[in-house]
């Protein structure tokens, strides 16, 4: 699962409406998988990303080179776009868990695929 996907996921357990984003990683196995660089895609995705959640997640995974704020010249800043590309498109979580900070529900990740299905009583 790429970090771009994680940045769009939240807990959907019944009545879990606060502090349910971003999901916290536990026992995460991180792998870098090369992807084609597309600066236009990155500039279009940038406004859709929750930057605070992304930086928090990166720090949690031990990735410390993420700026606290998006640079003002982000769309033209090649170094920033390449670092963003590496972070959201090439950083994959292969195994582990995502845990809701509110209800503590666990979403398992196996072979890079998060299981977001809920039991009937959780819907």
TrEMBL record:
Record-linked Pfam families: Trm112p
InterPro entries: Trm112, Trm112-like
Family listed: Belongs to the TRM112 family.
Subunit details: Interacts with TRM9.
Protein known as: Trm112p-domain-containing protein
Record organism: Absidia repens
Top-level lineage group: Eukaryota
Gene3D superfamilies: 2.20.25.10
Family matches, as CDD domains: Trm112-like
Annotated GO biological process: rRNA (guanine-N7)-methylation; tRNA methylation
Alphabetical list of PANTHER family matching this protein: MULTIFUNCTIONAL METHYLTRANSFERASE SUBUNIT TRM112-LIKE PROTEIN (PTHR12773:SF0), UPF0315 PROTEIN-RELATED (PTHR12773)
GO MF annotation terms: protein heterodimerization activity
């Amino acid at each position: 699962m790429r970090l771009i996907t994680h940045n769009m996921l939240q807990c959907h357990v019944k009545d879990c409406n606060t502090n349910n984003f971003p999901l916290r990683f536990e026992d995460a196995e991180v792998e870098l998988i090369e992807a084609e660089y597309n600066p236009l895609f990155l500039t279009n995705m940038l406004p859709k990303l929750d930057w605070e959640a992304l930086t928090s997640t990166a720090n949690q995974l031990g990735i410390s080179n993420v700026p606290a704020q998006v640079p003002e010249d982000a769309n033209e800043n090649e170094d920033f776009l390449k670092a963003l590309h590496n972070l959201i498109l090439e950083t994959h979580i292969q195994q582990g868990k995502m845990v809701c900070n509110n209800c503590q529900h666990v979403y398992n990740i196996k072979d890079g695929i998060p299981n977001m299905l809920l039991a009937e009583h959780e819907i």
